[in-house]
């Protein structure tokens, strides 16, 4: 009897394993067993396709060069004008997307160990507690192809395997960013090199194969497609692509069929592109040291920009082919398609070389588009949305109850809410730790030795409403930035002047916002940032409730009422005791401040 019991358990386990892991295999291979479930079939529950590109800009206009994206997604769905990332680098951003948590709550804050990368993701326990696990538990077939995380390598891909995919085919380091020498790893199989083939074309074959298999399956599907485009082409001479490795960054490589495109296109010449004069000042810390780029540098960056546009063309082709398959199978009307990027990108703005990792608009605004059932076509949503809102939105689409540990909230994807809804938040938490790496061959140390900026740690808050538009940051050097984007959309005039005392703020040129002195505005922004820099769950969504537990304050404008001046004047201030490469709270100054109750400043919130 004991032997029979064990055999029965093995039979069930084997059947479940087939259902879980054989999905998406080629026709001639083993097909998954038809195990009955209590979940709805995909003809009633919507399918979801999530396209996550790498390093695509919004403000440099790259989406204008993607006709299929515009035809099939933007014109048939909702474009989110004010969508922001919360950490402007890939691995921390991707972990936030897949967990619905800010980076200070995931503590995955870098692209490689000890503070980030796939090993840190596993160490923190998220391999058993993130979006594909939740979606599979809800009855979805989960599939993924392309880039998952940095430091997910040919050596550690099975230590452990990423959970929980019916089928997967991942790009692996150190070949992730090599357009003509990629390595993919499918399910539990060994990695396979595709040297000599164009990586996005390989991805397209895998993605369409997964899609066709998913459509024939009984359950709804959640398919993630993660091209590496338009990231730089990166080669590593000594293993994984991590800071400190012997790396070579170059412009992306295009497919042969796209090499002729966009020959005369240049980076948009906005006022903050390679400016002649420093602002007052435009940046702080290492950014203010950037020299003006010479013509050779500018020409190279224009070439770099064109290569990014060319690298996006296979992604644009893939979008059209996805639509064709969905139409052919008559399920387009029951499928949501989401398109976004893990972070934005700058090239030449504020004299910066190609790259990301900053809090400027180019780095933190990204394309975000949804089409699907109930989505208004050709609609532009102006509400503030963020990457930590993506997981809650997917839950909403799938009809799942929201998790209490989500730091974000569902987007107004069906317009039950809109930008005028008083409950919709106006703030974005933006945070970063560690290094900044200029990409391309030009940098302050010369073409053969890219400079790695070590003190690029900061906490910041982005506020956007119809009445005001602000960015406030505190760096680990305790330098500050404040930009009024309503009057200074290119962030050229830092209103926070370190040499001025708070009493002098009101005397500065343009030193009044909403009729209030800069000192009072800064006091409110700093208090808000104090909450956001260590918030969890609902406090990230409704931070003003921490400062004003009576619930009377919902926005910056509310908080500017004169009766709160003394409260915000004595509030604890955001500061750093030292610069660190990861999230170490004791380096980040005060963690709590005062709450306002019954007209008094009460001591610290918990």
UniProtKB/TrEMBL annotation:
InterPro entries reported for this sequence: Alkaline_phosphatase_core_sf, Arylsulfatase, Sulfatase_CS, Sulfatase_N
EC number: 3.1.6.1
Lineage: Eukaryota, Fungi, Dikarya, Ascomycota, Pezizomycotina
Residues annotated with 3-oxoalanine (Cys) modification: 90
Pfam families, per database record: Sulfatase
One BP annotation, GO: phenol-containing compound metabolic process
Signal peptide: 1-22
Family stated for the protein in its record: Belongs to the sulfatase family.
Superkingdom per UniProt: Eukaryota
UniProt xrefs under CDD domains: G6S
The Sulfatase N-terminal domain, residue ranges: 46-399
Catalysis: reaction(s): an aryl sulfate + H2O = a phenol + sulfate + H(+)
Species, as recorded: Penicillium steckii
Protein's UniProt name: Arylsulfatase
One GO molecular-function entry: arylsulfatase activity
Keywords of the record: Glycoprotein, Hydrolase, Signal
Post-translational modification: The conversion to 3-oxoalanine (also known as C-formylglycine, FGly), of a serine or cysteine residue in prokaryotes and of a cysteine residue in eukaryotes, is critical for catalytic activity.
